[in-house]
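Appendix C reproduces, verbatim, an entry submitted by the partner laboratory led by Prof. M.T., so that reviewers can inspect both the input and the predicted structure.
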Amino acid sequence: MSVSALSGIRVVDFSRVLAGPYCTMLLADFGADVIKIESLDGDDTRQWGPPWQEGESAYYLSVNRNKRSLALDLKHPQGRAIARRLVEKADIVVENFKVGGMAKFGLDYATLSKTNPGMIYCSITGYGQTGPYNALAGYDFMIQAEAGLMSITGPVEGPPYKVGVAIVDITAGMYASHAILAALHHREKTGQGQWIDVALFDAQLGWLANVGQNYLVSGKPPQRYGNAHANIVPYEVFQSADGYLALAVGNDRQYQLLCETVGRADLWQDERFQTNPGRVVNRGVLIPLLQEIFLTRSTASWIETLSQLGIPIGPINDIPAALAHPQAQARQMVREVPRVDGESIKMVGPVAQLSHTPAQIHSAPPRLGENTREILAVELALSPAEIDSLLREKVIGARD
């Protein structure tokens, strides 16, 4: 069996919903021991359905595999004491409370680092720990709107659109896991822990990438292009005789091959279209001409003809087709994960494939409080009587 890259790393995860849980799932996939601290009512997303599987929402299931659940009331003094004891043994703490939220429980970085100076503490918030908006809660939809993404998403004419998944939360979680791994490397060399401040707003600005840079270079606000590309033509969706196809011509040679193959060498010989900058400037003339051509044959026919020439072209699959794609199957991007009750859950698998320390799915997302007794008994050496007492006083919750 392969060794896990993060074996021996303990994460105490106070986060809920999406950005934080996605971050800690990425760490758990590589072998980190993630203790998910939940309120007695559980992570909000447990109720974000339908659809459901065995009473658990698909939303919750999507980002909480490979973790252990401890239901704990942080408003109770004994609950906070348990949390502090767990953090004393932790390598990493992740939280996504509003700014100052953890300080109210005495679980902030300044307090906890006094007894665990090597701890890496990651805070994920809407707008970060500083700045005039730092006290506001962060919601993916609002950040997509406020940080520019919706202004460049959607049809040329019409309202702005959000992305179909909570992409700001997801990318913030990825940035957080990336920063945590960098901090772990620093600690390995120096023994020094640190506080990581990740903002959803910053994450959205950070991955504007070439679109943000286009503005910084030109001074012109980027426009919406629908399914087209701001800097490459033709690079968009075309309608075929029986549906749609995606075409991504990335260089002049591919464009020349396209024109010659579809019997329109004149569209290559035209000086307006012989370079990509020329095609970008004259897209309003070129695209309608290409659209007329693609309407003459089916999507499958165009894919068969053009893909053989190395021209990037493909169908526009729905989610079922994408997950059933032969490449997805070959790469094991859909996994069946057994639960302790014998049932199994289908999940999208880990992305990065490491040759010596691959990511693994060793356990399904836990039920609320599924591991409470185990964690308190093994990690904190509490007796069964002490755990029962905490249950009676509603300091903890457990799934028996």
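The two ends are 31 Å apart (CA to CA). Additional entries are available on request from the coordinating office.
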